[in-house]
Amino acid sequence: MRIWHQSFTVLSDLGAYDAALRAHFKKVARADTVIDMHGMQPGTYRSNYPGDDIKHAAIQYLHGLQFMANGINAESQGYDAYAISTLPEPALRDIRSLLSIPVVGYGESAMLTACMLGRKFGVLVFIDELAELVSDNAVRHGLGQRLAGVRHVGFRFADVLAAFSDPTALIERFRTAARALIADGAEVIIPGEAPLNVLLASHGISEVDGVPVLDSLGAWIKQAEAMVDLQRANGTHTCNSGYFSARPDPARVREIFEFYGLAERFLEPR
User: Fold this and answer.
1) What is the mean pLDDT of the chain?
2) DSSP structural state of residue 78
3) pLDDT tens-digit profile of 28-53?
4) Within a domain: residue 24?
5) What φ, ψ does residue 82 adopt, rounded to 5°?
6) Helix, strand, or coil (residue 25)
7) Sorting pLDDT into bands at 50, 70 and 90, what band is 270?
8) Could you tell me which of 38, 66, 92, 190 has the fewest CB atoms within 10 Å of its CB?
9) Could you tell me the CA-to-CA distances from 242 to 10, 171, 228 in Å, in that order?
C-alpha cells in the first residue's frame, strides 16, 4: 500500500519535524504500508512558518491549489490513497471530488476517532485564528455537537520546533491547557496541528488526568489504510453525484490548470 502524505509545511525547512514524522509513521503504519512524504514547494512561504498564511481564509484557499494538484499527481502516479496531513484540511471536499482513490483528512480522521473514545472532544491549537476554522470544520463534518471547544495551547510553532530537543517544559504547558479544555467538557483531547501531535506522540503523551490525548497522525494513517482495504475488498468509494461530489472530466481539470498557468508548475506531465 502506498500513501501520499501531504503536509502544509515545506518539509525540507524543518529537519527535526521531518525526522520525527518519519519515525512516527514507521511506528504506526503497517509493515507493508509505504508513506511517501510531500510538503509544499520550496519558497511557498516567506519563512519556515506557514501560520502567517494559514490564518487567512483567502490565502489558504490559494495554497489549496497545491493540495489539489498533488492529489491529481498522487493518483496519476499510482498511489493508493491521498492523505492530507494538516488540521485546516485545505480543499478536502474539492479534492475528494477530483480523485477515485481514498482521500483522508487529518482533522476529520481525528474527530471521527475521538467520537469513539468519548462523548465530546476538544482541540488545542497554536495558531489562534484556526480555532474558528476548526469549529467550522467540525460542523461541516457533522460533528459540531460533539465539539467541547477549541483553545489556544499557550505556545507557538517555534516553541514546538525548539521542544524536539527538550520537550519537558512544553509538555507541562500542554497539560495545563488540556486541563482547561477538560473543564469545558472535553473527554478526548486532539492536539491540533501535526507538529504538536508528533512531538507528544513521540514522547508517549497519551492521556491527561484519565482523558485520552489522541494521536491524530496515528488515526489518520489507520483510516487511510482502512479506506484502501475497503476499496480493494468490495469497491467502496466516495460519492460521485451531486454538486459537491460528482467527479469532473480529468482532461477539463487539467485544461483549467493550464488556463490559469498552474499546470506546468504544479502538475506532473501526462
Assistant:
1) 94
2) T
3) 999 999 999 999 999 999 888 788 89
4) yes
5) -115, 120
6) helix
7) confident
8) 38
9) 35, 45, 23
> Which pLDDT does position 41 carry in this prediction?
93
Cα 105 to Cα 91: distance, rounded to the nearest angstrom:
10
Q: Roughly how many angstroms between the first and final C-alpha of the chain, as a whole number? A: 23
Is pTM beyond 0.90? Reply is yes
pLDDT at 72: 98
Grid coordinates representing 221 are: 494513517
Candidates 142, 95, 148; CA nearest to 121 is: 148
Contacts of 81 (CB under 8 A, 6+ apart): 1, 2, 3, 4, 101, 102, 103, 104, 224, 225, 227, 228
Q: How far apart are CA 166 and CA 261, in angstroms?
A: 45
**Which residues, in sequence order, are CB contacts of 169 under 8 Å at separation 6+?**
163
Q: Are 202 and 133 in contact (CB under 8 A)?
A: no
For residue 245, being part of any structural domain is answered with: no
For the stretch 226-249, what's the b/e string if a residue is b when 16 or more beta carbons lie within 10 angstroms of its beta carbon? ebbeebeeeeeeeeeeeeeeeeee
How many distinct structural domains can be found in the chain? 1
* Set of cell numbers at residue 254: 487539467
CA 122, distance to chain mean position in Å, is 16
Q: Which amino acid is at 198?
A: V
Q: How many whole angstroms separate alpha carbon 80 and alpha carbon 29? A: 14
The answer to the question of residue 259 being in a domain is no
Residue 61 lies in a domain: yes
CATH, residue 120: 3.40.50.12500
Phi (first) and psi of residue 110, to 5 degrees? -65, -45
SS3 of 195-254: the string is: HHHHHHHHCCCCEECCEEECCHHHHHHHHHHHHHHHHHHHCCCCCCCCCCCCCCCHHHHH
